[in-house]
Every structure is written in structure tokens, then in C-alpha cells.
Write a structure and sequence with these properties.
Length: 629
């Protein structure tokens, strides 16, 4: 239906253009007399001279175009070579411990607190995203990228050498801080200094890299865990060190630099001036609010009852702080109270970004994307290790079926954005539908235990995820071309935030369904990891008891997946109201010198625009078709 409406719209547009450009065969009664032969000869000579000049200019233009294409290819290859390793590192860090989670938790006798390994990472990888976007604007892309690589190495070293549970969680938290910076800044760099068409090509490559990295992360983690789970963290150190060298050699002079300051200032004074522009109040409110919300949802139903004050207070206080953050950002807008009180500071997330409807809609779609990705990578891994009794490496291989789905989706998005129809709405909407269908049927497949159906639905859900990853970035760049870093930070924040909230919900459901069914655990409020709660103890149970436990665990996993289906399904509703961005190769400049892409953006809900047809403007008594806004 959508394809039919799109073709109908394009056909109507071509007919109008043909009618407008067609020469008239009717000569008016008062038409001027034909020009004389002498006039025709002079006109012909002038046309020939103009043609010669045009041909000369065209040759120069062709040479300039070839040089521009060569420079564009060189820049793209520098981006790929310099950013591949950090993007791979940040993407695999999200999932590399998915199959290793039960083994790491069992080592510290904390199987009942298994989710904390994920939560410590996702709290920081979520809450620090906006501040990295502002730091990239203030201090430049290169300095901030090198900083996050150093933080990654420190966090990996602490986690790998952890002798206590707290030390492990602290190391994972630092790795989350670094991953937030890497994923966010790399997407910003890919959108810098290029047209939407070039941005589409750059993002296509890294969307595939990210999808592959997410998919093979559990496999790598599974094989490393077979030797020792510590290798899942050690491997980050040499990769980060090599990435630092490549970034310095290839991209140091290519990346967007720091914000401008007075030439009369010294080096230390310029640094202090840039630090003075940061939104410290907004950062504290944002991180505190998000951390408390995640803590409350993580504790709820797993460590404490949902009615417990230990759950209610963090969630309530976090909600208040999160609301206070948005009020603070409003007061920081130019002309308001805080902007006059702190004139040098800039809001971390300007509220003007939300004046366009598409950004909050895309934020929810990204939230559901993170929900689907994290759910599959972590809880399908738990399903195969706890319910099926697979080794970590074998469980990781089962998760590989998600990989070809993401690859197919990313390639399809490349076709939609780079070849036909060169628009973002189609992959965003179709990806939302496909992901929801695949995820819903996956719940049934996990219940039946049919591995082939599980693999197929993982691939289908992965295709929906892959379809949306790159077009969302292009869409944001199209609607806010002059605020790429801040707008991209909003989208990048929602992916891990959605995953974190969903994992907390699923963990609560999972643990609640297993309460009282762990042999030796009695009626305790959580799994008794100190007796027979570990994987080794479960495998050592008598066959009847072991099968009974695994049957309960399967039901718990299925219900955990069902709990997040509404989050993913709502993405279809959000995508139905999203506008559209046409991918163009033009780099228009506005009066202020910034990129201008307004002609490529359809601000109306595109599904409605397909039915309604192109907008027209009326001038006097004639109707002309207006270009899409």
C-alpha cells in the first residue's frame, strides 16, 4: 500500500512537471512576428559562443568533481581506518560478557546479583552520553576521543584484575563511561563536514561494523570465558592502545577542532574558558536522576520488593531530579534566569531541539531499539546457558543468528538511503514493523524451545534493528544539521537507556518467577548463590530436580521477554508520525554559513504526506507546487 501511494505521488509529480515544461502548439493572435534571418544568425552565433564557454567550464567542473570525489574517498577511508577499532571496541563491550555473565557472577558467588555486571556498565554508558556530546563541541573531537580511550584502558584493567565484587563493578562503570563517549563521538564525526549522501555512505559502513560487533561479541566472550572470564576485559587494552595510535596518525588534522576563543588568551586560559562553558548543573541533575531511576528499577523485584522503600525512594527521587533537569535546561535557554546568572555556560541539551516533532519520536524508536538489542543479547544468552545448559562458547554461537539479520537490515537500509528512494522514512517504519513481529514470535519460540525457530526469529528481529540504525542518524542530521552533536546525543542516550530499563524489568520478572524454585534456596527473596544457585551446582543436581528448575527458568525467560513487547510495539506508532529526509549530495550554505538542508526535509508525518500529496502554494489566481519543506 505504501509503495503504491509513493509511486502514485511520484507519477503525479512527473505529470505536473511535464505539463508545466511542455511547449505550446497554439500561437496567440497577438503573438510577435518571427525574428528575421539576420537576427536568427546572430542568435545562433551567440549560442555557439556560449556553448564553447560552457564546454570549457564543464571540463574544469569535471576536474573539480573528480578531485572532490578523490578527496571524499580518501577522507572516508581515513575515517574507516581510524574509527573502526574504537567503534568495534565500544560495540563489543556491550555484549562481550553476555554469555560470560553467569560464570563471572558465580566466581564471586553473586549469581543473584548477576544484573549488576550489566547495570554498572549501562548506568554510566547511558548517563554520560550527553556530556560527551557537549565536550566534543567544546574541546574538539580528537582530544575527547583520545580521552575516552584512556578511560577504557583503565576500566578494563580494573575489571580484569578484580579481586572483589565492588572492584569489578567499578571497572565496568569506567568502561561504560568510555563506551558512551566512543559511540557518541564517532557518530558525530561521521556526520561532520559532509553532505547527507556522504553521511549515508559513512554510516552504512559503521552500521554494519556495529551490527557485526554486537553479534560476535557474545561469541568472542564465550570463547575467552572458556579460558578465563578475565580475558573478556583484558582484550580491550591492546585494542584501545592501537586505536589511539591510528586516531592520532590518521585523523588528528581531519577532525573538527575545539570551540573558538580569544587569540589573546594563553593555552591554559583557553582551556579554562572552555571548561567555563560546560553545563555543570545540568550534568549533575541528569546523571543523578538517571542513576537513581536505573538503580530503583534494578532493585525492584530482584533485591527488594517493589513496595519496598529501597525501590520507591530511588525511583521517585530520580524522577524528580530528571524533571528538574529539564526545568534547569529551560532556564538555561537564552534570555531566561539561569542564562543571565551563568552567561558563559551553554545548556547540555537545548530544549529548542524538541521544537521539531521528529526528535522525540526518534528518541522513542531508539529506546525500543535498545530494548530489543539488549534483551536478545543478554536474555537469549541466559536462556541457552541456564535453560539449555550450554557452555558459554556454544551459547555465544547460538546468538550469531542475530548477526545475519542485522547485516541484511543494514544492507537494506543502505539501499533505501543510497540508491532508492534515497529517503529515511521507509527503513525506519519497515524496521519497526519487522522488529516487533520478530520479537513477538521469538517469545513463542523460547516457550516451545525449538532452536531453529529461535534462530529464525532472532534473525528477523535483527533485520528490523539493522534497518533503523543508520537511517535514524541520517534523519537527525537532516532535521538539525547545525546541532549534530547535541541532537545525536539525545538519540544515542535513548538506545542504552532503553536497554537498561528493559533489562531491569526483565531481570525483575526473571527473579520473581524463580523465587522459591531454586533447590536449597527455600523461600528466600532471591536466588541463594552461596549454596546451589551457581551453574555448577545446578548441573550437579539430580536429573529430575535439574529438569524442574530449567523448566521454571524457561517460563521466567519467556515472561521476561513478554514484559518488554509493548515497548517495542510502540515504535510502530512513533514511526507512523515521523517525517522524512531525502538524501542529497548538495551542501547548501545558509546565511550564517551553516549547512542548510531544509529542502530535503518533510516535516509532516510522511505517512500522511503520501496520502495528502505534495504541498502547493497559491499566488494570485494560479496554483504552483511548492517544494517540500
Amino acid at each position: 500500500m505504501i509503495r503504491y501511494l509513493y509511486k502514485k505521488r511520484q507519477r503525479q509529480k512527473r505529470e505536473r512537471e511535464a505539463t508545466h515544461d511542455a511547449p505550446s502548439d497554439i500561437v496567440a493572435a497577438d503573438a510577435p512576428t518571427p525574428p528575421s534571418k539576420t537576427a536568427l544568425s546572430e542568435h545562433t552565433l551567440a549560442e555557439k559562443e556560449a556553448s564553447t564557454d560552457t564546454k570549457h567550464i564543464s571540463d574544469e567542473d569535471k576536474q573539480a568533481q573528480r578531485a572532490a570525489k578523490s578527496a571524499s574517498r580518501t577522507y572516508r577511508w581515513k575515517l574507516i581506518a581510524g574509527l573502526f577499532l574504537p567503534y568495534f571496541l565500544a560495540s563489543t563491550d556491550v555484549t562481550i560478557i553476555a554469555t560470560a555473565l553467569p560464570f563471572i557472577a558465580s566466581h564471586f558467588s553473586r549469581l543473584d546479583q548477576l544484573n549488576w555486571i550489566v547495570t554498572s556498565f549501562t548506568i554510566t554508558s547511558t548517563s554520560f552520553i550527553p556530556i560527551w556530546g557537549q565536550l566534543a563541541d567544546v574541546f574538539g573531537r580528537h582530544v575527547v576521543l583520545q580521552t575516552v580511550m584512556v578511560i577504557m584502558m583503565i576500566g578494563a584493567a580494573l575489571a580484569a584484575g578484580a579481586q572483589a565484587w565492588v572492584m569489578l563493578l567499578f571497572g565496568r562503570a569506567l568502561m561504560g563511561v568510555a563506551a558512551a563517549g566512543m559511540l557518541n563521538i564517532i557518530k558525530i564525526v561521521l556526520a561532520d563536514k559532509v553532505s547527507l549522501e556522504e553521511n549515508a555512505k559513512n554510516n552504512t559502513t559503521f552500521a554494519i561494523v556495529g551490527g557485526v560487533s554486537f553479534g560476535i561479541g557474545p561469541v568472542i566472550g564465550g570463547y575467552l570465558t572458556s579460558a578465563s572470564w578475565r580475558w573478556a576485559f583484558i582484550i580491550n587494552i591492546p585494542i584501545a592502545a592501537l586505536a589511539m595510535v591510528l586516531i592520532w596518525v590518521l585523523l588528528r588534522k581531519e577532525l573538527v577542532g575545539p570551540s573558538s576563543t580569544s587569540d589573546s588568551q594563553g593555552r591554559s586560559q583557553r582551556i579554562l574558558t572552555r571548561f567555563a562553558t560546560l553545563d555543570y548543573g545540568g550534568f549533575i541533575l541528569f546523571v543523578s536522576g538517571i542513576t537513581l531511576i536505573i538503580l530503583g528499577t534494578t532493585w525492584g523485584g530482584a533485591t527488594y520488593a517493589w513496595s519496598s522503600s529501597a525501590v520507591i525512594i530511588p525511583i521517585a527521587l530520580g524522577g524528580v531530579l530528571f524533571l528538574a533537569f529539564w526545568i534547569y535546561e529551560y532556564l538555561m535557554t537564552p534570555g531566561n534566569f539561569l542564562s543571565r546568572l551563568f552567561p558563559s555556560q551553554e545548556p547540555m541539551i537545548p530544549l529548542t531541539l524538541f521544537t521539531k516533532r521528529d526528535l522525540p519520536l526518534l528518541a522513542w524508536i531508539s529506546f525500543s531499539t535498545g530494548s530489543a538489542m539488549y534483551s536478545i543479547f543478554y536474555f537469549v544468552g541466559i536462556y541457552f546457558t541456564v535453560v539449555k545448559g550450554y557452555e558459554a562458547s556454544k551459547a555465544g554461537i547460538q546468538l550469531l543468528y542475530y548477526l545475519p539479520g542485522i547485516g541484511v537490515g543494514a544492507y537494506s537500509a543502505m539501499f533505501f538511503c543510497n540508491i532508492w528512494p534515497k529517503q529515511t522514512w521507509f527503513p525506519i517504519f519497515s524496521g519497526s514493523v519487522i522488529e516487533t513481529v520478530g520479537f513477538a514470535v521469538l517469545c513463542y519460540a523460547l516457550h516451545t524451545g525449538k532452536v531453529s525457530v529461535i534462530a529464525g526469529m532472532m534473525a528477523l528481529a535483527g533485520a528490523g534493528t539493522g534497518l533503523r540504525l543508520m537511517p535514524e542518524t541520517l534523519h537527525v542530521t537532516g532535521i538539525w544539521p547545525n546541532h549534530i552533536a547535541r541532537a545525536m546525543s539525545v538519540i544515542d542516550f535513548c538506545i542504552p537507556f532503553g536497554g537498561t530499563i528493559s533489562l531491569a524489568m526483565m531481570g525483575a520478572v526473571f527473579n520473581n518467577k524463580l523465587v522459591g524454585h531454586i533447590p536449597g534456596g527455600g523461600g528466600s527473596a532471591h536466588l541463594n548463590s552461596h549454596s546451589q544457585g551457581s551453574l555448577d551446582a545446578i548441573n550437579a543436581l539430580p536429573a529430575v530436580a535439574r529438569d524442574a528448575f530449567r523448566d521454571k527458568a524457561r517460563t521466567a525467560v519467556v515472561l521476561a521477554f513478554v514484559a518488554v513487547v509493548p515497548i517495542i510495539a510502540l515504535a510502530i506508532v512513533a514511526a507512523s508520525f515521523v517525517g522524512n529526509v531525502r538524501i542529497t549530495k548538495e551542501e547548501r550554505k545558509s546565511e550564517t554559513g551553516h549547512l542548510e538542508t531544509s529542502r530535503a526535509v518533510e516535516e509532516r508525518p510522511f505517512l500522511w504526506a503520501l496520502v495528502q500529496g505534495p504541498r502547493r502554494r497559491v499566488e494570485d489566481t494560479s496554483k504552483e507546487e511548492a517544494p517540500l519543506p
